[in-house]
Amino acid sequence: MTATPGLDAARLASPDLLRAVFRRHAAGVAVITARGDDGPVGFTATSLTSVSAEPPLVSFGIGLGASSWPAVSRAGHVGVHILGEHQEALAGVFARSGADRFGASTSWREGPQGVPVLDGVLAWLVCRVVARVPAGDHRLVVAEVVRGDPSGAGRPLVYHQGRFNGLRD
C-alpha cells in the first residue's frame, strides 16, 4: 500500500480547516441583491449553485450574522448577478462589512419585482425565493428563476486563495 501525501498532516474538522480547504477551491463570484425595508441590500457570494433546470432553481448560502440576512430572510424575490473580471472592485464593495454597497460607485436600477439589478454584469437573474433551509450558522436559500439576461460581455471573475482573479488562458 502506498502512502497518501499529506495524510499524516490531516487535521480534525474545524471552521479553520473548512476555510483553508475552500481557499483552494476556485469559485465564480456573484452578488445577491434584495429589496429591504430601508432600501436595497446585497452581498458577494461564491456559494451560488445551479440546482435544477426544470423548474429552473438556484441556491446560495448566507450567514445569519450577515447585514443582508434580515432583508433576505423576508424577501420574496432576490437578484443574482454573475460578475465579470472587470468588476473586482464591485465584488470588494459588496464583500466589505459596513460598505455603502449602493452608493455612487454602484450602477444599478430597479428590476422585475422591485429587485435591485446591477449594471454591467455578465448575466443576471431575478428569482422567487422558494425555501430557506437551516444549515449551521447559515441559511441555504433556494430560488426559482423568474427573469434574467445572460448577454453581458466579458470573462468571469473568480475567487481563489482569498483573492479575486480573472481566468487565465
Explain the overall architecture.
The radius of gyration is 17 Å and the shape is globular. Strand 7 and strand 8 form a beta hairpin. The chain has 3 helices and 12 strands; from the N terminus they run H-E-E-E-E-E-H-E-H-E-E-E-E-E-E. By secondary structure, it is mainly beta. A 7-stranded antiparallel β-sheet has the order 3-2-6-9-10-5-4.
What is the fold's blueprint, element by element?
Layout: H1 15-23, E1 27-28, E2 30-36, E3 39-45, E4 49-53, E5 56-63, H2 69-74, E6 77-82, H3 88-95, E7 108-110, E8 116-118, E9 123-135, E10 138-149, E11 157-160, E12 163-166
Antiparallel strand pairs: 1-11, 2-3, 2-6, 4-5, 5-10, 6-9, 7-8, 9-10, 11-12
Care to give the gist of this entry?
With 169 residues, the protein is mainly beta.
What percent strand? 35-45%
Shape: globular
What is the succession of H and E elements? HEEEEEHEHEEEEEE
Q: Output mean pLDDT.
A: 94
What descriptors fit this protein?
mainly beta, 12 strands, 14% helix
